[in-house]
Design a protein that fits this description.
The protein has 296 residues and is of the alpha+beta class. It is 31% helix and 24% strand. It folds into two domains: 5-51 and 131-262, no CATH class; 54-128, no CATH class. A hairpin with a 5-residue loop joins strand 7 and strand 8. The model is unreliable at 72-79, 264-268 and 271-275 (pLDDT under 50).
Length: 296
């Protein structure tokens, strides 16, 4: 099958060409080139984008006290280093007896409750990383003709086929292809919508004829197509990102995808190159293994 652009519904094609209509484009980036080059669909209703950081906490203890003391001592007009008070000694002594447990620990806890004084743990929030983003898409495909039924069928199976890995030997699998998702306005990126680096399709579900059990006429080849298909898909970015993946020197999303891939596969993450890259690695590994075993 020759490479083609799958567009649903068919009316979207003219809207994009003539009116610069907003839509979303899916293309395979890393992996073998499939039966299509791009899939163009309407932007789903209620498209959401969620960004999450991972933070923890750490008790600085004595180090925090020293740092705080230096900060206060160095502040203009603070009057120098902050001196310890009687409360500091009471709190420290109470903590020491509490750590001993037993009767003394119980008495120390009772004294702490009465005095209302505890040692400041100097708890600080710590940045621990960026969570990998996921994006959910829900499309309702309602074909109005035999040709649109075929296109809807091809779109469903294109996503399903290339979310799976491919066998590359008796005990090895090749990574599934990655998908590049771009929100478009006509033929240009729509920078009002999220910028997404390359992704894997991690889950997909299809619901047929959700509102009625009707089918199009049997086409004599594939059978009778359902009158509607609901596709729900989750795409996960290939790695955690930084602000440099999204922005340059302004508050507008940057152009291009030169750094949208990851370390797995072909360095440039372009169609077909990953398969060749993997084949080269496999052939080298086989040659080295044969050499070690003394097999020619």
């Amino acid at each position: 099958m020759s490479h083609t652009i799958l567009t649903f519904p068919e009316t979207l094609r003219s809207k994009v060409s003539d009116e610069g209509f907003p839509h979303v484009s899916f293309s395979m980036v890393r992996g073998e080139a499939g039966e299509f080059t791009d899939i163009h669909l309407f932007v789903p209703i209620g498209m959401a984008s969620s960004d999450n950081m991972n933070y923890g906490s750490s008790e600085l203890g004595a180090i925090g006290a020293i740092a705080s003391n230096k900060r206060i001592g160095g502040r203009a007009g603070s009057g120098g280093t902050k001196e310890k008070s009687g409360a500091d000694y009471i709190a420290a002594l109470t903590k020491k007896f509490k750590s001993g447990g037993g009767i003394s620990g119980g008495l120390a806890t009772a004294f702490e409750l009465k005095s209302g004084l505890v040692v400041n743990p100097y708890t600080a929030t710590t940045f621990e990383g960026v969570n990998v983003r996921s994006f959910e898409f829900a499309f309702k495909l309602v074909p109005t003709s035999r040709e649109e039924s075929k296109t809807a069928h091809m779109i469903e199976n294109a996503f399903r086929k290339y979310m799976y890995p491919k066998e590359r030997g008796a005990g090895s699998l090749e990574y599934p292809p990655t998908f590049r998702i771009e929100f478009m306005s006509g033929g240009r990126p729509n920078k009002y919508m999220p910028r997404i680096i390359d992704t894997y399709l991690t889950s997909m579900s299809a619901n047929y004829n959700a509102t009625g059990n009707a089918f199009h006429q049997n086409d004599g080849v594939l059978g009778a197509a359902p009158t509607e298909i609901d596709l729900s898909m989750t795409f996960q970015e290939v790695r955690s990102i930084t602000r440099d993946d999204l922005y340059g020197d302004t508050l507008v999303y940057k152009d291009g995808h030169s750094n949208s891939g990851h370390v797995v596969g072909a360095p440039s993450d372009t169609p077909g190159e990953a398969a060749a890259y993997t084949a080269d690695l496999s052939n080298s590994a086989v040659d080295q293994g044969a050499e070690l075993l003394g097999v020619e």
